[in-house]
Amino acid sequence: MKTVLLVDPRKMKIATLSLMKFSTYFESKGWDVAYVEGTQFFGLPKKVDKIIVTGIFTFDLPKVVEVTNYYKSKYQLEGKDVHLGGIAVSLMPDYIHEMCGDVDICIGICEKVDQLKPDYSIYPDIDYSIGYSTRGCVRKCLFCAVHRVEPKFIEIKGWEKMINMHKSRVLMLDNNFTACSNEWFAKVCQRLTYFGKLVDFNQSVDCRLFTEFHAKEFAKVRLECLRFSYDGKHVSEKKVRDAVDLARSYGHNDIRFDVLYNYTDTPEEFWHRMYVLADLQVKAFPMKFVPLDSLYRNYVGKHWSEIRLKSYHELFGRLFAYGMMGEGPNIKAIFMKGMGSSGAEFVEKLDAVYIDEKGKIDDQQSILDGF
């Protein structure tokens, strides 16, 4: 019997849906399926006929190369039996070929497995299902890879078969769910309501497209939270405030925003977006921009500096736990105490944090008092 080895380059925060579908694909062909994280030396199959490696983030690609070359050499596989895919691999295929030599690369979506039911057995410890009812996005934001990897926005028929009814939660990975037709939106929400499980639209909702219809339909679903994004000036403050007010009017109380920074924004502009969210008393999760062709996470935006980024991480980390600004009536006061009462004061605070030549924070600084 033939064996396929499915490989995550490292332990991922969310289970890799593509590998779950590849497991289903090869099991349907009568193959044995083995799954590993990273480079393992014990407990491996004695013989492997194919390996499948996925890479989601470009800064994981050096690890993708490491595991690919390791298993390719260990099992003496030819390039045609070494398959790599995922967002990062699709964005930087030339790098993979340069570092791994003769391998088979899938750019974009692998059509033959995309519609298959996932095999949840390779991730036995997760308590959630993963699915999506749409592919692609109507936006073409330059900081985002979606329009390059999934260029067409489509509604996915039969998406329900991705859901495992034995799991207590559902992660929906739609990139822009509010961009679908109202008819489709209502059908998906109806189905999720029928499932009766906690649901998280994990990739956030476009507040520029969010309407009363969406708020009303979402109110029927057991949402863990309602996620939006506030990534720059292309999203107006009015749209953000209107979306929050509308969501709350339909009973959505756990509202969270993903907030991009270190892209084309200035520290002052980033401060203003965070201030707006503190004023609205919603949760905010700042997300540092990394270019789509970067192998490392140390990118510095043109309006930032390495020291200011380190200072911000220190201030924010001391102010809020788990990398997220909390909610509640006191959050605005807490935010302004720690991050300043204006964009200019925020920059002054960043520049007042002393970082030595080794990049270490001096904990004795008065700027850190009270944190």
The CATH class label of the largest domain is Alpha Beta
Number of strands: 13
General shape: globular
Overall mean pLDDT score? 94
CATH fold category name of the largest domain: TIM Barrel
Question: SSE order, as H and E?
Answer: EHEEHEHHEHEEHEEHEHEHEHEHHH
Task: Give the second-level CATH assignment, the architecture of the largest domain.
Answer: Alpha-Beta Barrel
- Rounded to the nearest angstrom, the radius of gyration is 22 Å
Helix content: 25-40%
Strand content: 15-25%
Q: Please outline the major beta sheet.
A: 5 strands, parallel
* Class derived from helix and strand content: alpha/beta
End-to-end Cα distance, whole Å, is 60 Å
Helices, by number, come to 13
Strand arrangement, largest sheet? Answer: 2-1-3-4-5
* Domain unit count: 2
Poorly predicted ranges: none
Keywords:
alpha/beta; TIM Barrel; five-stranded parallel sheet; 2 domains; Rossmann fold; 13 helices; 371 residues
Short note summarizing the structure:
With 371 residues, the chain is of the alpha/beta class. The protein contains 13 helices and 13 strands.
Question: Mind explaining what this structure looks like?
Answer:
With 371 residues, the chain is an alpha/beta fold. The chain has helices at residues 17-28, 61-74, 87-91, 93-100, 111-114, 146-149, 182-195, 212-218, 237-249, 267-279, 306-319, 331-339, 343-352; strands at 3-8, 32-37, 50-54, 82-85, 104-105, 128-131, 134-135, 154-155, 169-172, 198-201, 226-229, 255-261, 283-288. It folds into two domains: 3-112, Cobalamin-binding domain (Rossmann fold), CATH 3.40.50; 121-366, TIM Barrel (Alpha-Beta Barrel). The protein has 13 helices and 13 strands. The strands form four sheets. Strands 2-1-3-4-5 form a five-stranded parallel β-sheet, with helices on both faces. The protein has a three-stranded parallel β-sheet with strand order 6-9-10, with no helix packed on it. The chain is globular, with a radius of gyration of 22 Å. β9 (169-172), α7 and β10 (198-201) form a beta-alpha-beta unit.
